[in-house]
C-alpha cells in the first residue's frame, strides 16, 4: 500500500531505520529509485531500502552530473521517493554543495525531506561521475572538515564518506583518506571506482568500517553480484542508475515508434497498463480517503 495511505507508515526517523538495517546481518541492497513510481516498484520487488543518485536526478532534468544540482533540486526528489515507498533512503550528496556550513545546511535539508543517509565525496567542483577521468580531489583535511560538519549537524542521518582517490592516489591514498574520514565521524566509507576484485578485497582488509560498493553499469568496476560483494567484505551495494537507464531507453524507443508508425499501437505490449499503474499507486485507496469521490472503473475494453 502506498506510504501516504498506509496504516503502518513508519514513525521513526529515516536515519534510525537506515541504521537498523545496517546493523542487521548480511548485505544491504540499495537499488536506484529515481522517482516515486520507481520507489514503489522497488518496494514491491522486496527491497528494504533505496538509493537516489545524482546522475539519475540530473538525468531526469536533462543536465549532466557536474555539480549543477542544488540542495532544493535534490530535496524535490527525496520527498517524492521517501513519501512514495516509506523506505529508508540513501542520497547522493555530491561534494556537500559547498564548504562546512553548506554541508550542515544540506544535512538538515535532506533530513527534513525524508532521507535516511547521505554520502559526501572528496572531489572539487565541477565534480564528475566517479567513473570518469581527470577528477580533482579536495585536500584530505578539507574533506574531513566537511564530514565533521555533517556529523555535527545531523540529528539521525547516517553519514557515508566517499573517496575517489584510488584512481589518482592509489590504494594507499584511498585508505589513508578513509581512515581520516572515519576519525572525523563518518559512519561508513564508499571507495569509488575500484577496478578489480583484488582492489575491493584489499580495501576491505585495510579499512575496518561498514563499506559501500557501487555497481554502476558502463563504468570502471567489473560486474559483480551482491553475493560477491558481500564475500569481499562489503555491507552495502548500490545500483545507482539502472532503473533510470532502462526507463530512458524505453522512452526513446516509444518516441521512435510514434515517428515511424504514426502512433503507439505497436508498443502496447511494452507498456504498463492503466490497471497495473492504478494498482501500484493505490488509486482506490486514495479515493477511499474521501467518500465524496466516486470510485473509478477501469475501461474493460481498453488495454490502457
Structure description:
This protein has 304 residues and is an alpha/beta fold. It has one domain: Alpha-Beta Barrel (TIM Barrel). The protein contains 12 helices and 8 strands. The strands form 2 sheets. Strands 2-3-4-5-6 form a 5-stranded parallel beta sheet. Helix 2 packs parallel to helix 4, helix 5 crosses helix 6 and helix 6 packs across helix 7.
Summarize the structure.
This protein has 304 residues and is an alpha/beta fold. The protein is 45% helix and 11% strand.
What keyword list fits this structure?
304 residues; alpha/beta; TIM Barrel; five-stranded parallel beta sheet; three-stranded parallel beta sheet
Compute the CA-based radius of gyration: 20 Å
> Mean pLDDT, nearest integer?
92
User: Beta fraction of the residues?
Assistant: 5-15%
Give the number of domains.
Answer: 1
CATH secondary-structure class: Alpha Beta
CATH 2nd-level architecture:
Alpha-Beta Barrel
User: What is the first-to-last residue Cα distance?
Assistant: 22 Å
The largest sheet is: 5 strands, parallel
Series of H and E elements:
HEHEHHEHEHEHEHEHEHHH
Query: Which oligomeric state applies?
Result: single chain
Number of strands: 8
CATH T-level topology: TIM Barrel
Q: How would you write the strand order of the largest sheet?
A: 2-3-4-5-6
